[in-house]
Amino acid sequence: MKATAKAHTNIALIKYWGKRDEALILPTNSSLSLTLDGFFTTTTVDFQANLTRDQFMLDDEPVEGESYQRVSNFLDIIRTMAGKENLYATVHSKNDVPTAAGFASSASGFAALAAAGTKAIGMQLDNQELSRLTRQGSGSASRSIYGGFAEWEMGGKTDGSDSFAVPVAPAQHWDIRVAAVVLSSTVKKVSSRAGMKRTVETSPFYSGWIDSIPKDLREIKDAIKTKDFEKTGSIAEANCLKMHATTLAANPPFTYWHDTTMRVMQTVQEMREKGIPAYFTIDAGPNVKVLYLPEDEGKVKETLRTIPGVTDVILSKPGQGISYL
Amino acid sequence: MKATAKAHTNIALIKYWGKRDEALILPTNSSLSLTLDGFFTTTTVDFQANLTRDQFMLDDEPVEGESYQRVSNFLDIIRTMAGKENLYATVHSKNDVPTAAGFASSASGFAALAAAGTKAIGMQLDNQELSRLTRQGSGSASRSIYGGFAEWEMGGKTDGSDSFAVPVAPAQHWDIRVAAVVLSSTVKKVSSRAGMKRTVETSPFYSGWIDSIPKDLREIKDAIKTKDFEKTGSIAEANCLKMHATTLAANPPFTYWHDTTMRVMQTVQEMREKGIPAYFTIDAGPNVKVLYLPEDEGKVKETLRTIPGVTDVILSKPGQGISYL
């Protein structure tokens, strides 16, 4: 009862920012992402009759505490689905997501865990079922089931049965690139989870954010379909600014941006003024991801590398969805 | 028919951000400011029967173009009020508002012009009438009629008759200080006027901004009354962040912040973590103003001066309202 799966992380172009149900991880808005080739997690799940509790090894180190509990709680959902409540597993995960790049490894992590876990326990889920399950481990992970562009449809039901990701366009549809800009200081005072919660509960801008999402989603899907890079990039950039603006109006206000974050944003806008189409997006942290076209890779990398406070620039292409090894 | 008046600029603690009537300069929200001792304009208006048009000298240099037109249009309002439509004036203004400090000289400028102009033409207006008139030259100038803390009540009438500033507390009520932090780069791509307009017309956060103002105003007036510096500062800082957040959601999005702006904000928050009560506020530009208490002046000035990208720190106390020389 053993299986291994690999999943890539993804970068949201239309951000997931707020839960309507904390336990089921049901979002207040739909979101859209690009799965990335360069960053992935490989996970082996082995259910064994003789175990009395789960074991979780991350990069060959045993993990306990909160991270262990999230994994074990997620396996509980799988066990319940399979009707095998007393069957525990060893989980071996390997992260090829450099921490400094500022990607949440939970996206690739829970997608790989869901795929390996369900296969190991003997279930055969289609992608939609797998995405719905994955969502309950990590919201953004629900999109990593698919390669290329995927949309997590928020759904409307209270049991979460209609909240899962669907494919928008595969990786091979459009080769756009993402540069992960690594900053020398990446201190984050408010976790994504806490920041999201505080914003939903206190920001007077939150309803404006929610109201603006359907148009952003509709327009970016059109732009992706027609491979309109300028449109895709500007919608993504504006959506990111809007998301971060909601935190500035929270009570107490907060921001994930550092001065270097601002400098990278300025540099990207200057690149555009010089005729290089490049757009930024930022998750709940100080790091910046830059979208660009393959033909501009040299110039974009060089420009980003020379910004004071930037220590590394890691490039990636669109990646594939879940695979079994 | 000659008079000289002096008016100080002011810094808004609850921001004026949006007009409901562009011609009459009627705001979409009430605002509150502190008049500052260190920055002022002195203006002499001399109505002379032999002139065929107005003349405007700023710091001994003749001014034409848009700035001239704003002054002459404002004198038209005074002439109409006085029933002396064909009487032109020479206007001599001297600005003691360092441009680099990033204060709008229009606040002190139009307050001094209104006071000198009405006195020179023979009218005697009370402060409320003077503020209502001043508002039509520059919205924020309506608050500079008063010393100390003043509130510009937005009013509700379409003719603007109930839109003017009122005193909240005089300068001698509370000696809190303001440091104007001068940045090496102060390029501003979007004017305040254009930025305000774009935000009102396109930002999905604008109604959230408007809805949040009455509570901010009520609470900051309480805090000023009881001299609660922590409360006054945090409300002002949060209000500034909210105002700037509205621009990030405009279409197209924009910001007045530079990387150094962000660094100064971070430094102020770090000062607080070290036990120095200091709070920032930022108008429609990259410069930062820092509120602090007199006993912390040395530490605050030194800390701000050593931030990379900061070229000067100019200190000010609460200032007086209009005076006639």
From TrEMBL, chains A, B:
Keywords: ATP-binding, Lipid biosynthesis, Lipid metabolism, Lyase, Nucleotide-binding. InterPro entries: GHMP_kinase_C_sf, Mev_decarb, Mev_diP_decarb, MVD-like_N, Mvd1_C, Ribosomal_Su5_D2-typ_SF, Ribsml_uS5_D2-typ_fold_subgr. SUPFAM superfamilies: GHMP Kinase, C-terminal domain, Ribosomal protein S5 domain 2-like. Residues 181-305 form the Mvd1 C-terminal domain. The keyword Lyase applies. Pfam families: MDD_C (PF18376), MVD-like_N (PF22700). Residues 7-165 form the Diphosphomevalonate decarboxylase-like N-terminal domain. It is an enzyme of class 4 (lyase). Its EC number is 4.1.1.33. One of its GO terms (molecular function) is diphosphomevalonate decarboxylase activity. Belongs to the diphosphomevalonate decarboxylase family. NCBIfam families: mevDPdecarb. PANTHER family: DIPHOSPHOMEVALONATE DECARBOXYLASE. This is diphosphomevalonate decarboxylase. The gene is mvaD.
